[in-house]
């Protein structure tokens, strides 16, 4: 490891923000399941590691009726997998969380870390996107909120500026009758990154939301496709049409996990399968 | 144990030269206070500093589970955790399973079912299973598979391991009243 870093564990948010702003080459540590690998592979050169797990704001994991769910930046993925309220209210998030990496890694990996790492193939963003998640960011100028669909700016890039850190992610409570599902394709059933992951949601008013990963430089919410589906009205026929139309809304690449062509095909299949399951029909 | 010679690992810890941090934690029931390099992983700390060589390094990136330990009741991969993150933690390693020199039921069943050949992955399997059975004394096969999915074995095969876990769970329920 070429990095030589100091370790700092702040106990209040101001202290953390000031330190991150002042010190060059400082990196935020929560679960460490991505950061430690970047350090080990010498992909980053860190001089300061800021462990945010003692910040009270990052440990929040709460659901408030009417207001929705808040997941602090220190909350690990298995907490979300085991949560009854997430299973009941945000099933696509439960399914995406349960599909992430291995059990041991989910005991350390955080939900917010999966966002901040900004991998194109991250499993949690598609699910968070369909629930209109908002990212709460602390920085030198105070707090700001960014909708998750505006948070990613490129492969492993986000809107975060120097001195800023994500404190939590929050999403409104879905109404009665809301349905959602997360489906992913990987090379093997166990521990593998997604080849394509699709979160589909049908809101109580019948409007759809679609989130997808591993088919573009960032995880994406497919707003244009959603509008077209909503205009046509949800039906088996519309779903079959959408499964073809989705190809026009994504730009997958060929890499070690899949060809671009296969990703297009799987995006089509997973969208169709997901939406049909949500309206109670088999694909 | 401090006179035990070094036991080599795939990666060696290189001292960063940064100011050491005082770390206090509990390992296998023993209260420990040491000054550690902030760049040291928990795995290196257990092996190099505490000379607990049961916990293994294989991939070093959290993929294989050979370095699995129990930290505050949860199975985690110690190769991608910094030692300083374990401040105040309660840690159990494979050395903490036997009591007074007597193997635990779980260890006995790994032996009776031939659930190991080379044994390199075994401490990790044992610790993942220990955490599972502590939280859920009567797991389904699907739950066992889910939890052990993060542990790779390249020689025994997984069937004897599954059998050992099932039998250990059964015996613990019967003999320890879990």
Keywords:
heterodimer; A: 283 residues; alpha+beta; Enolase-like, domain 1; five-stranded antiparallel sheet; 11 helices; 33% helix; B: 178 residues; Ubiquitin-like (UB roll); DNA polymerase, domain 1; 2 domains; five-stranded mixed sheet; 31% helix; globular
Descriptive notes:
The complex is a heterodimer of chains A (283) and B (178). Chain A contains 11 helices and 14 strands. In chain A, the strands form 4 sheets. A 5-stranded antiparallel β-sheet of chain A has the order 4-5-10-6-7. Chain A has a domain at 179-278: CO dehydrogenase flavoprotein, C-terminal domain (Enolase-like, domain 1). The longest helix of chain A has 19 residues, at 260-278. In chain A, a hairpin with a 2-residue loop joins strand 8 (152-154) and strand 9. In chain A, helix 5 (91-98) packs antiparallel against helix 8 (124-130), helix 9 runs antiparallel to helix 10 (236-245) and helix 10 runs antiparallel to helix 11 (260-278). Chain A is α+β, with helices and mostly antiparallel strands and 283 residues long. By secondary structure, chain B is an alpha+beta fold. The longest helix of chain B is centred in the C-terminal third of the chain and has 17 residues, at 159-175. Chain B has a 5-stranded mixed β-sheet with strand order 2-1-5-3-4, with helices on one face. In chain B, a hairpin with a 2-residue loop joins strand 3 (68-71) and strand 4 (74-77). Chain B has 5 helices and 5 strands, in the order ββαβββαααα. Chain B has 2 domains: 21-96, Ubiquitin-like (UB roll) (Roll), CATH 3.10.20.30; 105-175, DNA polymerase, domain 1. Chain B starts with 20 loop residues before the first strand and ends with a helix. The chains are: A alpha+beta (283), B alpha+beta (178).
